């Protein structure tokens, strides 16, 4: 199936794209929402240059759509971007990086239903500890670029999560009760290297 990827450059969207490709789907384009709101319910606050750089590494085009990041209103911008991808690249479905947020998953699925597209959620419901171990074993180099939770101070910014750092993260998540996969916005990540990258 020809698919577009809702893409932020972080671990969830990149790993979901990797899994979908592994399952035999064709990655046609990336779709990236550039939110002006750092506290958006739907999208990471990411620089256009960074997304373009990652898209170049993967070797597929990217559709950018700006959004003010206002709750519910930002969904109109998402629909506009997905509609453009369908028209321009003839995609048949969308890949999401949804892990545990029903808010995100249900809204993306509603848009896909409206546009008659499949909605594929490869990592939905995955257990956090297993998820991190899968990422590491599949040679994903993931860097923390932002922290926003008790227990995660600025010393984590710039760190690559390997087996040693993962153990520390697990201990901190148990102690401070944050979501280990950062599903509540506790941290944001960037994929520095992975099997999807051609360069």
Count the helices. How many?
6
The end-to-end span amounts to 25 Å
Supply the number of structural domains. 2
Order of helices and strands: EHEHEHEHEHEHE
Coarse structural class: alpha/beta
Poorly predicted residue ranges: none
Helical residue percent? 25-40%
CATH superfamily of the largest domain, by name, is: HUPs
Care to give the gist of this entry?
The protein is an alpha/beta fold. Helix content is about 40%, strand content about 20%.
Write up what this structure looks like.
With 199 residues, this protein is α/β, with parallel strands linked by helices. The chain contains six helices and seven strands. It has two domains: 2-125, HUPs (Rossmann fold, 3-Layer(aba) Sandwich), CATH 3.40.50.620; 128-192, putative n-type atp pyrophosphatase, domain 2, CATH 3.90.1490.10. Helix 3 (74-89) crosses helix 4.
């Amino acid at each position: 199936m020809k698919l577009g990827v809702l893409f932020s450059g972080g671990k969830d969207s990149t790993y979901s794209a990797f899994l979908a490709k592994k399952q035999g789907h064709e990655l046609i384009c990336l779709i990236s929402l550039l939110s002006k709101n750092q506290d958006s319910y739907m999208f990471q606050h990411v620089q256009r240059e960074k997304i373009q750089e990652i898209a170049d590494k993967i070797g597929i085009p990217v559709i950018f759509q700006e959004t003010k990041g206002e709750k519910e209103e930002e969904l109109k911008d998402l629909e506009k971007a997905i509609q453009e991808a369908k028209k321009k690249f003839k995609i048949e479905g969308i890949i999401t990086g949804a892990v545990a947020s029903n808010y995100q998953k249900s809204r993306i699925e509603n848009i896909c239903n409206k546009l008659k597209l499949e909605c594929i959620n490869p990592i939905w419901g995955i257990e956090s500890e297993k998820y991190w171990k899968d990422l590491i074993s599949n040679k994903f180099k993931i860097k923390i670029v932002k922290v926003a939770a008790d227990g995660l101070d600025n010393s984590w910014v710039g760190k690559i999560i390997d087996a040693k750092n993962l153990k520390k993260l697990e201990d901190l998540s148990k102690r401070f009760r944050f979501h280990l996969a950062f599903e509540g916005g506790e941290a944001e990540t960037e994929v520095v290297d992975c099997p999807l990258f051609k360069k």
